[in-house]
Protein backbone atom coordinates (compact mmCIF):
# COMPACT_ATOMS: atom_id res chain seq x y z
CA UNK A 1 0.00 0.00 0.00
CA UNK A 2 1.27 3.48 -0.86
CA UNK A 3 2.32 5.65 2.05
CA UNK A 4 0.72 9.08 2.12
CA UNK A 5 2.98 11.93 0.97
CA UNK A 6 2.36 15.67 0.55
CA UNK A 7 0.42 16.83 -2.51
CA UNK A 8 2.73 16.71 -5.52
CA UNK A 9 5.18 14.62 -3.53
CA UNK A 10 4.75 11.49 -5.63
CA UNK A 11 4.13 8.04 -4.18
CA UNK A 12 6.24 5.34 -2.56
CA UNK A 13 4.88 1.78 -2.69
CA UNK A 14 6.15 -1.62 -1.63
CA UNK A 15 6.65 -4.10 -4.45
CA UNK A 16 5.98 -7.85 -4.37
CA UNK A 17 9.72 -8.52 -4.19
CA UNK A 18 9.94 -6.52 -0.94
CA UNK A 19 11.69 -3.49 -2.46
CA UNK A 20 10.18 0.00 -2.50
CA UNK A 21 9.29 1.98 -5.58
CA UNK A 22 8.92 5.75 -5.81
CA UNK A 23 7.08 7.44 -8.66
CA UNK A 24 6.50 11.04 -9.73
CA UNK A 25 5.72 13.02 -12.87
CA UNK A 26 8.69 14.98 -14.22
CA UNK A 27 9.71 16.71 -17.47
CA UNK A 28 12.06 14.91 -19.85
CA UNK A 29 14.56 16.37 -22.32
CA UNK A 30 11.91 16.27 -25.08
CA UNK A 31 9.68 18.56 -22.99
CA UNK A 32 7.09 15.87 -22.21
CA UNK A 33 5.63 15.07 -18.80
CA UNK A 34 6.45 11.45 -17.98
CA UNK A 35 6.16 9.21 -14.94
CA UNK A 36 9.60 8.38 -13.56
CA UNK A 37 10.38 5.54 -11.14
CA UNK A 38 13.11 5.13 -8.51
CA UNK A 39 13.81 2.13 -6.30
CA UNK A 40 15.24 1.34 -2.87
CA UNK A 41 15.57 -1.58 -0.47
CA UNK A 42 13.79 0.47 2.24
CA UNK A 43 11.03 3.06 2.24
CA UNK A 44 13.45 5.77 3.35
CA UNK A 45 15.92 4.96 0.58
CA UNK A 46 13.21 5.12 -2.11
CA UNK A 47 11.78 8.31 -0.59
CA UNK A 48 15.22 9.94 -0.57
CA UNK A 49 15.78 9.10 -4.24
CA UNK A 50 12.32 10.38 -5.07
CA UNK A 51 13.06 13.62 -3.22
CA UNK A 52 16.25 14.12 -5.26
CA UNK A 53 14.34 13.47 -8.47
CA UNK A 54 11.74 16.08 -7.57
CA UNK A 55 14.37 18.59 -6.47
CA UNK A 56 15.94 18.17 -9.90
CA UNK A 57 12.51 18.86 -11.42
CA UNK A 58 12.08 22.01 -9.30
CA UNK A 59 15.50 23.23 -10.43
CA UNK A 60 14.41 22.92 -14.05
CA UNK A 61 16.73 20.02 -14.88
CA UNK A 62 14.89 17.56 -17.18
CA UNK A 63 15.40 13.80 -17.01
CA UNK A 64 16.85 12.09 -20.10
CA UNK A 65 14.21 11.15 -22.67
CA UNK A 66 16.08 7.94 -23.40
CA UNK A 67 18.44 5.69 -21.50
CA UNK A 68 21.89 6.11 -23.04
CA UNK A 69 24.61 3.57 -22.53
CA UNK A 70 28.04 5.13 -22.13
CA UNK A 71 29.07 3.63 -25.47
CA UNK A 72 26.09 5.20 -27.24
CA UNK A 73 26.81 8.59 -25.73
CA UNK A 74 30.52 8.43 -26.61
CA UNK A 75 29.66 7.56 -30.23
CA UNK A 76 27.20 10.48 -30.39
CA UNK A 77 29.68 12.85 -28.74
CA UNK A 78 32.47 11.95 -31.16
CA UNK A 79 30.34 12.19 -34.30
CA UNK A 80 28.16 15.21 -33.53
CA UNK A 81 30.21 17.31 -31.11
CA UNK A 82 33.93 16.57 -31.48
CA UNK A 83 34.13 15.90 -35.22
CA UNK A 84 32.43 19.12 -36.45
CA UNK A 85 34.02 21.44 -33.90
CA UNK A 86 37.55 20.23 -33.19
CA UNK A 87 40.68 19.70 -35.27
CA UNK A 88 40.79 16.41 -37.17
CA UNK A 89 43.84 15.24 -35.24
CA UNK A 90 41.99 15.87 -31.96
CA UNK A 91 39.07 13.78 -33.20
CA UNK A 92 41.43 10.95 -34.21
CA UNK A 93 43.11 11.01 -30.78
CA UNK A 94 39.80 11.00 -28.90
CA UNK A 95 38.31 8.29 -31.12
CA UNK A 96 41.25 5.96 -30.50
CA UNK A 97 40.90 6.29 -26.72
CA UNK A 98 37.16 5.62 -26.94
CA UNK A 99 37.56 2.63 -29.26
CA UNK A 100 40.54 0.99 -27.57
CA UNK A 101 39.76 1.55 -23.91
CA UNK A 102 36.43 3.12 -22.98
CA UNK A 103 33.96 1.16 -25.09
CA UNK A 104 35.46 -2.32 -24.49
CA UNK A 105 35.45 -1.83 -20.70
CA UNK A 106 32.56 0.56 -20.02
CA UNK A 107 30.53 0.83 -23.22
CA UNK A 108 27.52 -1.16 -21.96
CA UNK A 109 27.26 0.71 -18.66
CA UNK A 110 24.28 3.01 -18.22
CA UNK A 111 25.32 6.63 -18.67
CA UNK A 112 23.17 7.87 -15.79
CA UNK A 113 24.18 5.05 -13.44
CA UNK A 114 27.92 5.33 -13.94
CA UNK A 115 29.69 5.59 -10.58
CA UNK A 116 33.12 6.75 -9.39
CA UNK A 117 33.72 3.23 -8.03
CA UNK A 118 33.22 1.73 -11.50
CA UNK A 119 35.63 4.23 -13.01
CA UNK A 120 38.27 3.60 -10.34
CA UNK A 121 37.97 -0.13 -10.99
CA UNK A 122 38.35 0.53 -14.73
CA UNK A 123 41.46 2.67 -14.21
CA UNK A 124 42.95 0.01 -11.91
CA UNK A 125 42.37 -2.59 -14.63
CA UNK A 126 44.23 -0.43 -17.16
CA UNK A 127 47.12 -0.12 -14.74
CA UNK A 128 47.12 -3.88 -14.07
CA UNK A 129 47.34 -4.59 -17.79
CA UNK A 130 50.33 -2.21 -18.00
CA UNK A 131 48.72 0.56 -20.01
CA UNK A 132 51.26 3.42 -19.66
CA UNK A 133 50.44 6.25 -17.23
CA UNK A 134 50.34 8.85 -20.01
CA UNK A 135 47.78 6.78 -21.94
CA UNK A 136 45.67 6.25 -18.80
CA UNK A 137 45.78 9.99 -18.16
CA UNK A 138 44.50 10.70 -21.69
CA UNK A 139 41.74 8.08 -21.41
CA UNK A 140 40.36 9.64 -18.24
CA UNK A 141 40.72 13.13 -19.72
CA UNK A 142 38.68 12.10 -22.78
CA UNK A 143 36.00 10.57 -20.54
CA UNK A 144 35.84 13.74 -18.43
CA UNK A 145 35.36 15.83 -21.56
CA UNK A 146 32.59 13.56 -22.84
CA UNK A 147 30.75 13.54 -19.51
CA UNK A 148 31.12 17.31 -19.13
CA UNK A 149 29.25 17.65 -22.39
CA UNK A 150 26.57 15.24 -21.14
CA UNK A 151 26.14 17.51 -18.10
CA UNK A 152 25.79 20.55 -20.40
CA UNK A 153 23.19 18.65 -22.44
CA UNK A 154 21.37 17.97 -19.14
CA UNK A 155 21.68 14.22 -19.55
CA UNK A 156 23.64 14.07 -16.29
CA UNK A 157 23.47 16.13 -13.13
CA UNK A 158 27.18 15.68 -12.35
CA UNK A 159 30.38 14.38 -13.91
CA UNK A 160 31.45 11.33 -11.91
CA UNK A 161 34.78 11.18 -13.77
CA UNK A 162 35.76 14.43 -12.01
CA UNK A 163 35.69 12.49 -8.73
CA UNK A 164 38.37 10.05 -9.93
CA UNK A 165 42.00 11.09 -9.43
CA UNK A 166 44.05 11.53 -12.59
CA UNK A 167 47.01 9.11 -12.92
CA UNK A 168 50.35 10.62 -12.02
CA UNK A 169 52.51 11.06 -15.08
CA UNK A 170 56.21 11.64 -14.57
CA UNK A 171 57.35 13.78 -17.45
CA UNK A 172 60.88 13.32 -18.67
CA UNK A 173 62.43 16.76 -18.70
CA UNK A 174 63.31 17.08 -22.38
CA UNK A 175 65.60 20.00 -23.15
CA UNK A 176 65.43 21.94 -26.41
CA UNK A 177 68.69 22.76 -28.15
CA UNK A 178 70.89 25.54 -26.93
CA UNK A 179 72.02 28.12 -29.49
CA UNK A 180 75.20 26.25 -30.40
CA UNK A 181 73.33 23.01 -31.13
CA UNK A 182 70.64 24.81 -33.13
CA UNK A 183 73.13 26.68 -35.29
CA UNK A 184 75.23 23.54 -35.81
CA UNK A 185 72.07 21.91 -37.11
CA UNK A 186 71.16 24.84 -39.38
CA UNK A 187 74.67 24.99 -40.82
CA UNK A 188 74.52 21.27 -41.61
CA UNK A 189 71.03 21.61 -43.15
CA UNK A 190 71.99 24.69 -45.18
CA UNK A 191 71.78 23.06 -48.62
CA UNK A 192 68.62 21.04 -47.97
CA UNK A 193 65.47 22.08 -49.86
CA UNK A 194 63.57 22.39 -46.55
CA UNK A 195 66.25 24.48 -44.84
CA UNK A 196 63.99 27.54 -44.67
CA UNK A 197 61.24 25.43 -43.05
CA UNK A 198 63.72 24.39 -40.36
CA UNK A 199 64.63 28.05 -39.84
CA UNK A 200 60.97 28.97 -39.25
CA UNK A 201 60.52 26.13 -36.77
CA UNK A 202 63.65 27.01 -34.81
CA UNK A 203 63.58 30.80 -34.98
CA UNK A 204 59.84 31.53 -34.99
CA UNK A 205 58.59 28.49 -33.08
CA UNK A 206 55.98 27.61 -35.70
CA UNK A 207 54.33 24.18 -35.70
CA UNK A 208 55.24 21.92 -38.60
CA UNK A 209 51.64 22.00 -39.91
CA UNK A 210 51.71 25.84 -39.85
CA UNK A 211 55.05 25.99 -41.66
CA UNK A 212 53.90 23.59 -44.38
CA UNK A 213 50.67 25.57 -44.82
CA UNK A 214 52.40 28.92 -45.41
CA UNK A 215 51.73 30.55 -48.79
CA UNK A 216 53.68 33.32 -50.49
CA UNK A 217 50.66 35.60 -50.15
CA UNK A 218 50.94 35.25 -46.35
CA UNK A 219 54.38 36.92 -46.37
CA UNK A 220 54.87 40.70 -46.53
CA UNK A 221 58.58 41.15 -47.29
CA UNK A 222 58.29 44.95 -47.45
CA UNK A 223 56.82 45.24 -43.95
CA UNK A 224 58.87 42.28 -42.65
CA UNK A 225 55.81 40.49 -41.29
CA UNK A 226 53.64 37.45 -42.03
CA UNK A 227 50.28 35.95 -41.09
CA UNK A 228 49.89 32.16 -40.81
CA UNK A 229 46.38 31.29 -42.00
CA UNK A 230 46.59 27.68 -43.18
CA UNK A 231 47.91 24.32 -42.06
CA UNK A 232 48.55 20.97 -43.72
CA UNK A 233 46.96 17.89 -42.17
CA UNK A 234 46.42 14.29 -43.20
CA UNK A 235 42.75 13.35 -42.96
CA UNK A 236 41.88 9.66 -42.79
CA UNK A 237 40.16 8.51 -45.97
CA UNK A 238 40.93 11.80 -47.74
CA UNK A 239 44.69 12.35 -47.69
CA UNK A 240 46.62 15.60 -47.30
CA UNK A 241 44.48 18.73 -47.06
CA UNK A 242 45.15 22.44 -46.64
CA UNK A 243 42.91 23.69 -43.82
CA UNK A 244 42.24 27.00 -42.10
CA UNK A 245 43.87 27.62 -38.74
CA UNK A 246 40.98 27.88 -36.28
CA UNK A 247 42.28 29.92 -33.36
CA UNK A 248 42.41 33.72 -33.58
CA UNK A 249 45.87 33.77 -31.98
CA UNK A 250 47.12 31.67 -34.90
CA UNK A 251 45.96 34.43 -37.27
CA UNK A 252 48.10 37.09 -35.60
CA UNK A 253 50.36 39.25 -37.75
CA UNK A 254 53.88 38.21 -36.70
CA UNK A 255 57.22 39.95 -37.25
CA UNK A 256 59.61 38.41 -39.79
CA UNK A 257 63.25 38.76 -38.65
CA UNK A 258 65.88 39.45 -41.31
CA UNK A 259 67.41 35.98 -40.95
CA UNK A 260 64.06 34.33 -41.71
CA UNK A 261 63.30 36.69 -44.59
CA UNK A 262 66.62 35.82 -46.25
CA UNK A 263 65.95 32.11 -45.86
CA UNK A 264 62.53 32.53 -47.48
CA UNK A 265 63.92 34.56 -50.37
CA UNK A 266 66.42 31.76 -51.03
CA UNK A 267 63.56 29.25 -50.80
CA UNK A 268 61.68 31.16 -53.52
CA UNK A 269 64.70 30.99 -55.83
CA UNK A 270 65.02 27.25 -55.22
CA UNK A 271 61.30 26.67 -55.80
CA UNK A 272 61.44 28.58 -59.10
CA UNK A 273 64.33 26.33 -60.13
CA UNK A 274 62.36 23.20 -59.19
CA UNK A 275 59.34 24.46 -61.15
CA UNK A 276 61.45 25.02 -64.27
CA UNK A 277 63.02 21.56 -63.99
CA UNK A 278 59.66 19.79 -63.62
CA UNK A 279 57.93 21.88 -66.29
CA UNK A 280 54.47 20.56 -67.15
CA UNK A 281 54.76 18.04 -64.33
CA UNK A 282 54.42 20.82 -61.74
CA UNK A 283 51.10 20.28 -59.96
CA UNK A 284 49.62 22.71 -57.45
CA UNK A 285 45.97 23.49 -56.73
CA UNK A 286 44.83 26.99 -57.79
CA UNK A 287 45.26 29.51 -55.00
CA UNK A 288 47.59 27.35 -52.91
CA UNK A 289 50.88 29.03 -53.87
CA UNK A 290 52.67 27.05 -51.16
CA UNK A 291 56.10 28.09 -49.96
CA UNK A 292 57.05 24.57 -48.94
CA UNK A 293 55.75 22.34 -51.71
CA UNK A 294 56.94 18.92 -52.76
CA UNK A 295 59.40 18.69 -55.64
CA UNK A 296 56.40 18.57 -57.98
CA UNK A 297 54.37 21.31 -56.29
CA UNK A 298 52.09 19.27 -54.02
CA UNK A 299 51.48 19.32 -50.28
CA UNK A 300 54.18 17.96 -47.97
CA UNK A 301 53.10 15.38 -45.39
CA UNK A 302 53.85 16.65 -41.85
CA UNK A 303 55.04 13.14 -40.93
CA UNK A 304 57.34 13.19 -43.94
CA UNK A 305 58.71 16.56 -42.82
CA UNK A 306 59.48 15.07 -39.40
CA UNK A 307 61.36 12.21 -41.07
CA UNK A 308 63.42 14.70 -43.08
CA UNK A 309 64.09 16.72 -39.91
CA UNK A 310 65.21 13.60 -38.03
CA UNK A 311 67.56 12.65 -40.88
CA UNK A 312 69.07 16.15 -40.84
CA UNK A 313 69.53 15.95 -37.07
CA UNK A 314 71.40 12.67 -37.45
CA UNK A 315 73.60 14.08 -40.21
CA UNK A 316 74.42 17.17 -38.14
CA UNK A 317 75.58 15.00 -35.24
CA UNK A 318 73.65 17.02 -32.65
CA UNK A 319 71.51 15.75 -29.79
CA UNK A 320 68.35 14.15 -31.13
CA UNK A 321 65.12 16.05 -30.42
CA UNK A 322 61.69 16.14 -32.06
CA UNK A 323 60.32 18.91 -34.28
CA UNK A 324 57.88 19.78 -31.49
CA UNK A 325 60.70 20.27 -28.99
CA UNK A 326 62.82 22.13 -31.55
CA UNK A 327 60.17 24.89 -31.53
CA UNK A 328 61.19 25.75 -27.99
CA UNK A 329 64.69 26.77 -29.15
CA UNK A 330 62.97 29.85 -30.57
CA UNK A 331 63.59 32.31 -27.72
CA UNK A 332 67.28 31.50 -27.46
CA UNK A 333 67.88 32.00 -31.18
CA UNK A 334 65.96 35.28 -31.27
CA UNK A 335 68.35 36.62 -28.64
CA UNK A 336 71.37 35.60 -30.72
CA UNK A 337 69.91 37.16 -33.83
CA UNK A 338 69.74 40.41 -31.84
CA UNK A 339 66.01 40.65 -32.49
CA UNK A 340 64.55 43.52 -30.45
CA UNK A 341 62.84 42.24 -27.27
CA UNK A 342 59.49 43.80 -28.27
CA UNK A 343 59.61 42.00 -31.63
CA UNK A 344 60.62 38.77 -29.89
CA UNK A 345 57.69 39.23 -27.49
CA UNK A 346 55.28 39.26 -30.45
CA UNK A 347 56.90 36.20 -32.05
CA UNK A 348 56.93 34.24 -28.80
CA UNK A 349 53.37 35.43 -28.05
CA UNK A 350 54.35 36.40 -24.51
CA UNK A 351 51.74 38.42 -22.66
CA UNK A 352 54.40 40.41 -20.78
CA UNK A 353 57.79 41.72 -21.90
CA UNK A 354 59.29 40.45 -18.61
CA UNK A 355 58.75 36.89 -19.84
CA UNK A 356 60.74 37.65 -22.98
CA UNK A 357 63.52 39.39 -21.07
CA UNK A 358 63.80 36.35 -18.81
CA UNK A 359 64.71 34.32 -21.90
CA UNK A 360 67.11 36.98 -23.19
CA UNK A 361 69.02 37.46 -19.94
CA UNK A 362 69.80 33.74 -19.61
CA UNK A 363 71.69 33.55 -22.91
CA UNK A 364 75.33 33.66 -21.80
CA UNK A 365 78.44 31.47 -21.66
CA UNK A 366 81.39 30.36 -23.82
CA UNK A 367 79.31 27.92 -25.87
CA UNK A 368 76.87 30.68 -26.67
CA UNK A 369 79.63 33.10 -27.68
CA UNK A 370 80.94 30.47 -30.10
CA UNK A 371 77.42 30.15 -31.47
CA UNK A 372 77.41 33.87 -32.33
CA UNK A 373 80.47 33.38 -34.54
CA UNK A 374 78.88 30.33 -36.18
CA UNK A 375 75.70 32.29 -36.83
CA UNK A 376 77.62 35.15 -38.44
CA UNK A 377 79.29 32.66 -40.80
CA UNK A 378 75.92 31.11 -41.62
CA UNK A 379 74.45 34.51 -42.50
CA UNK A 380 77.30 35.22 -44.92
CA UNK A 381 77.06 31.83 -46.68
CA UNK A 382 74.87 32.10 -49.81
CA UNK A 383 72.72 29.07 -50.60
CA UNK A 384 72.35 29.66 -54.32
CA UNK A 385 75.17 31.28 -56.18
What's the SSE blueprint?
Blueprint: E1 11-14, E2 20-27, E3 33-40, H1 43-58, H2 70-85, H3 88-106, H4 116-128, H5 133-152, H6 179-188, H7 195-204, H8 208-212, E4 219-220, E5 225-226, E6 230-235, E7 239-244, E8 254-255, H9 258-278, H10 302-316, H11 323-326, H12 330-336, H13 341-348, H14 353-360, H15 366-380
Structure description:
The protein has 385 residues and is mainly alpha-helical. The chain folds into three domains: 11-58; 70-163, Tyrosine recombinase, N-terminal domain (DNA polymerase, domain 1), CATH 1.10.150.130; 179-380, hpI Integrase, Chain A (Orthogonal Bundle). It contains 15 helices and eight strands. The chain has a three-stranded antiparallel β-sheet, with helices on one face. A three-stranded antiparallel β-sheet has the order 4-5-8. The chain has a two-stranded antiparallel sheet with strand order 6-7. A hairpin with a 4-residue loop joins strand 4 (219-220) and strand 5.
Strand order of the largest sheet: 1-2-3
Order of helices and strands: EEEHHHHHHHHEEEEEHHHHHHH
Query: How many helix segments?
Result: 15
The CATH topology of the largest domain is given as hpI Integrase, Chain A
Low-confidence segments, ≥5 residues, pLDDT <50?
364-369
- Structural class from helices and strands? mainly alpha
Largest sheet: 3 strands, antiparallel
CATH architecture of the largest domain, please?
Orthogonal Bundle
**If you compute it from the alpha carbons, what radius of gyration comes out, rounded to the nearest whole angstrom?**
29 Å
Strand elements, count: 8
Mean pLDDT: 84
Broad shape? elongated
Amino acid sequence: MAKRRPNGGGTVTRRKDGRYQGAAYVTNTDGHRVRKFVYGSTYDEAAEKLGKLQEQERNGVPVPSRTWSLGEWLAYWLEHIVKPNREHNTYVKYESKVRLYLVPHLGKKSLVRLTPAQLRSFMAELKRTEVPPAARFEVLRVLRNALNRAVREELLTRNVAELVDMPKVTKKEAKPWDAREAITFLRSARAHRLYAACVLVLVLGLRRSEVLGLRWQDIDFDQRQFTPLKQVQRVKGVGLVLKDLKTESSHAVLPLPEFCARALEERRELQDLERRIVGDGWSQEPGQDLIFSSERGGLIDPVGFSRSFNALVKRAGVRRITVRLARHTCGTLLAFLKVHPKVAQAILRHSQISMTMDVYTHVVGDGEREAVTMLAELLEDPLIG
